[in-house]
Amino acid sequence: MTYRYHASVGRGASRRNLLRYDSGHAHTPGVYHRHEYDLHTGKDSLTLLTREEFPVLGDMVDELARMFPQAGAPDDRRP
Protein backbone atom coordinates (compact mmCIF):
# COMPACT_ATOMS: atom_id res chain seq x y z
CA MET A 1 0.00 0.00 0.00
CA THR A 2 1.22 3.49 -0.81
CA TYR A 3 -0.20 6.83 0.23
CA ARG A 4 0.62 10.54 0.16
CA TYR A 5 -0.46 13.90 1.48
CA HIS A 6 -0.16 16.67 -1.11
CA ALA A 7 -0.85 20.38 -0.67
CA SER A 8 -0.98 22.90 -3.50
CA VAL A 9 -2.52 26.29 -4.27
CA GLY A 10 -4.11 27.73 -7.39
CA ARG A 11 -5.71 26.06 -10.38
CA GLY A 12 -4.72 25.18 -13.89
CA ALA A 13 -1.54 26.81 -15.14
CA SER A 14 -1.23 28.89 -11.95
CA ARG A 15 -1.25 25.82 -9.67
CA ARG A 16 1.78 25.61 -7.37
CA ASN A 17 2.83 22.69 -5.22
CA LEU A 18 3.58 23.48 -1.59
CA LEU A 19 4.34 20.27 0.24
CA ARG A 20 4.03 16.53 -0.24
CA TYR A 21 4.67 13.52 1.99
CA ASP A 22 4.97 10.08 0.36
CA SER A 23 5.11 6.59 1.75
CA GLY A 24 7.49 4.17 0.08
CA HIS A 25 7.03 3.38 -3.61
CA ALA A 26 6.94 -0.12 -5.14
CA HIS A 27 10.69 0.00 -5.89
CA THR A 28 11.56 1.54 -2.46
CA PRO A 29 8.88 0.27 -0.06
CA GLY A 30 10.45 1.39 3.23
CA VAL A 31 11.60 4.84 2.11
CA TYR A 32 9.29 7.57 3.37
CA HIS A 33 9.99 11.10 2.21
CA ARG A 34 8.95 14.74 2.20
CA HIS A 35 9.00 17.19 -0.72
CA GLU A 36 8.95 20.92 -0.03
CA TYR A 37 8.53 23.13 -3.09
CA ASP A 38 9.88 26.60 -3.79
CA LEU A 39 6.86 28.74 -4.68
CA HIS A 40 8.79 30.79 -7.23
CA THR A 41 10.76 28.13 -9.08
CA GLY A 42 8.69 25.01 -8.42
CA LYS A 43 11.89 23.16 -7.50
CA ASP A 44 11.52 20.66 -4.68
CA SER A 45 13.82 19.63 -1.89
CA LEU A 46 13.62 16.03 -0.73
CA THR A 47 14.00 14.84 2.85
CA LEU A 48 14.08 11.12 3.69
CA LEU A 49 12.06 10.08 6.74
CA THR A 50 11.70 7.04 8.92
CA ARG A 51 8.26 5.54 9.44
CA GLU A 52 8.22 7.09 12.92
CA GLU A 53 8.92 10.57 11.46
CA PHE A 54 6.12 10.32 8.88
CA PRO A 55 3.31 12.63 10.04
CA VAL A 56 -0.39 11.97 10.29
CA LEU A 57 -2.54 14.24 8.12
CA GLY A 58 -3.38 16.63 10.97
CA ASP A 59 0.33 17.21 11.58
CA MET A 60 0.77 18.24 7.95
CA VAL A 61 -2.18 20.65 8.18
CA ASP A 62 -0.57 22.20 11.28
CA GLU A 63 2.76 22.45 9.44
CA LEU A 64 1.08 24.29 6.55
CA ALA A 65 -0.60 26.68 9.00
CA ARG A 66 2.82 27.50 10.49
CA MET A 67 4.36 27.94 7.02
CA PHE A 68 1.55 30.23 5.83
CA PRO A 69 0.07 32.01 8.87
CA GLN A 70 -1.45 34.69 6.61
CA ALA A 71 -3.88 32.04 5.31
CA GLY A 72 -5.88 32.41 8.51
CA ALA A 73 -5.86 28.98 10.15
CA PRO A 74 -8.88 28.48 12.40
CA ASP A 75 -8.28 29.13 16.11
CA ASP A 76 -10.98 26.82 17.44
CA ARG A 77 -9.63 23.40 16.48
CA ARG A 78 -11.53 20.49 17.87
CA PRO A 79 -10.18 16.96 18.40
Strand order of the largest sheet: 1-2-3-4
SS field, number of helical segments? 1
The first-to-last residue Cα distance is: 27 Å
Order of helices and strands: EEEEH
Oligomer: single chain
- Taking all Cα atoms into account, the compactness measure Rg is 14 Å
Helix/strand structural class = alpha+beta
Flag low-confidence runs. Answer: none
Count up the domains.
Answer: 1
Helix content: 10-25%
The percentage of residues in β strands lies in 25-35%
Main sheet properties: 4 strands, antiparallel
Q: What is the residue-mean pLDDT, rounded to a whole number?
A: 85
Number of DSSP-assigned strands: 4
Shape: globular
Commentary on this structure:
The chain contains one helix and four strands. The chain has 79 residues and is of the alpha+beta class. It has one domain. It has a four-stranded antiparallel sheet with strand order 1-2-3-4, covered by helices on one side.
Topology:
Blueprint: E1 4-9, E2 16-22, E3 32-37, E4 44-49, H1 57-67
Antiparallel strand pairs: 1-2, 2-3, 3-4
